Description:
This protein is mainly α and 135 residues long. The chain has one domain. 73% of the residues lie in helices and 0% in strands. α3 runs antiparallel to α4. The radius of gyration is 21 Å and the shape is elongated. It starts with 6 loop residues before the first helix and ends with a helix. The mean pLDDT is 87.
Amino acid sequence: MNLNMDLATLFSFKFWFSLFPGYTSEVTLQTLGGVFLAALFLFIIFFFSKNKTQSINKKVFSNLSYLFLSFGLLGFVWLFFLYEEVYLLGARFWLLILILGHLVWLAKIVLYLKLRLPKEKEEQEKKKTFRKYLP
């Protein structure tokens, strides 16, 4: 098994945007499969933990669970096409699109956590204290 790879290849345009991916080593397939399987396990964790959290955090846990579900499933679909060496659908640029799309989705969740969630918690506390004095 030859694990020597030139890192300059990873940064070349031809490597990422070749429509025919060519042979992919077993180590690469197993590593990518492990990453996508971990994403599916994270989906299960966030999906079942959203029922145990406060109502204000359910939206965050729900968004995170669907993020990991789509990453895992789309990743396995792409991995199948890569393994079968399908002409266009197994191309490596789909992995870039998959990762960039999910990073944008994750950034939106983080922005919600940092910007909107504290305001929503504050409004909920105000409503709670207001209701405390109502008959």
